[in-house]
Amino acid sequence: MIALTKTTRTAGGKDTLVILSDVSQLRGIDLERSDRQYLTEQLNGEASVASCDISGRLVLVHCVRPGTPSRQLEQARRAANEMVLRLLAARREEAQVVSLQDKADLTLAFAEGAVLGAYEFRKYKTNGKAGSLKKLALVASEVSTKALEELLDVCECTCIARDLVNEPASSLNAVQLAAEIRTLAKASGFKVQVMEKAQIEALGMGGLLAVNKGSVDPPTFTIMEWKPKGAVNRKPILLVGKGVVYDTGGLSLKPTPNSMDSMKCDMAGAAAVAGAMAAIARQELPVYVVGLVPATDNRPGGNAYAPGDVIRMHSGLTVENLNSDAEGRIILADALSYGERYEAELVFTIATLTGAAMRAIGIYGTVTMGTADEAQFQRLEAAADHTFERVARMPFWEEYGEEIVSDVADIKNMGSDLAGQITAGKFLARFTTRPFIHLDIAGPSFVNRRDHYRTKGASGVGVRLFYDFIKRRAANKK
Q1: Do the Cβ atoms of 241 and 328 come closer than 8 Å?
Q2: In terms of Cα–Cα distance, which of 364, 369, 356 is closest to 451?
Q3: How far is residue 411's CA from residue 404's CA, in Å, rounded to a whole number?
Q4: Pairing outcome for strands 57-63 and 411-412
Q5: How many Å apart are CA 210 and CA 339, to the nearest integer?
Q6: Architecture of the domain delimited by 3-140
């Protein structure tokens, strides 16, 4: 991640990224009149970013346009990302970010877009050096050092989640994922416990064990805990993330083109939970939070579980497996059942769970549903608007639950070919008695083309959303 530090004065002759709220504020930059006029003409048009090359010095300017607060924040992020791409193309090593407006949230969003937009995953490049841009200096009196440190923690944890998702399965099996979470816990300050296969067997996690039967690598079950003194909640918020480190579909084998080839991303839910736990702990938010990650790969080898099999789950319920590619809900179900011991005030699941979710709303947001009360959904939607990790709420009518009734077991892991994102959520809801919200991130978790500061590949979706949600919970003592 590029270094972003706060400073008190601008430096002459340095490449400059500017955010302002009125074109008249261009007078605050040391420019010749003709250069200022050139930038003004661009900003008076429709350009999101005005640019001027002054004898090799780049001056790039974003003027905040009218709009909702959520849209203005997102425009700032996108403008900063566009500027960073220009700096990278020009092989610049450092630049300064100058705010000439007084809204701290807009300046922070601008900085966020720059930092996240500069992300690269180059671990396996023969020339593995990162891009040329290494340093940004922020000149913004309205932004406190504390607020900037918070932003950088959240950005770094988002980039860590991206790294985990971008890592190939050959280097990140379930055991290695658990080890990475251990390392992250040590660096961030939350507690972690990793259960190995023998403990998973002793717990009777039949779902996780069934999905793992086709793999040569053992499963893991990772428990993360952040329980600060003076927490505003006695019962925790529970975050449960799907940790399928690679998904072939099992015996219900996926087609390779445009399907199996990106299935290293099937643990994006686990990465989001780990990244969010790290950010929450680093910022010492006064909220009791527990994260659970059941992890395995899903392969067709060995004694792989088969369509028609009946699985006895950790909860005692039996599940008829009708599709071995509907494995995520099976491992999440065991985690939800285990999570009952916490009597959580709210339970989230986050998973790349269904193609139906992506078909419903594309890559532009997360499908959500559940049994939590309206206040919890409103808090989630406020966090989603602020981070622009938007959510689209689905109905959760009783009739959808009727579609997963099995003829031979208590329930089955597939409904009809309609509303698959909702029937998957109904399946999960059978394994928790607590207020519940399900997030299906199949669309935005891994993108095949760059979506502004959400770089190609892993987006890290969920980290910023969860952090903002928990921060809002910290502000509400009830």
Answers
A1: no
A2: 364
A3: 6
A4: unpaired
A5: 19
A6: 3-Layer(aba) Sandwich (3.40)
pLDDT tens by residue, 325-336: 999 999 999 999
CATH 3.40.630.10 location in the chain: 154-475
Cα gap 447→404, rounded to integer Å: 30
Q: Using CA atoms, how far apart are residues 377 and 355, in angstroms rounded to an integer? A: 23
Residue ranges, CATH 3.40.220.10, the chain? 3-140
343: left (phi over 0), alpha (psi -120 to 50) or beta: left
* Dihedral sign (CA 97, 103, 106, 109): positive
Residue 97 has pLDDT above 90, yes or no: yes
Q: Which of 6, 57, 254, 434 is catalytic?
A: 254
Do 441 and 352 form a contact (C-beta atoms < 8 A)? yes
pLDDT in tens, 171-222: 999 999 999 999 999 999 999 999 999 999 999 999 999 999 999 999 999 9
Whole-prediction pTM value? 0.97
Q: State whether CATH 3.30.70.100 applies to domain 154-475.
A: no
242 assigned to active site: no
Q: Is 434 a known active-site residue? A: no
Q: Is 155 helix (H, G, I), strand (E, B) or coil?
A: helix
| 278 CA to centre of own chain | 13
Structure tokens of 262?
């990106």
Catalytic-labelled residue, pool 329, 379, 412, 454: 329
Structure tokens at 188: 């961030």
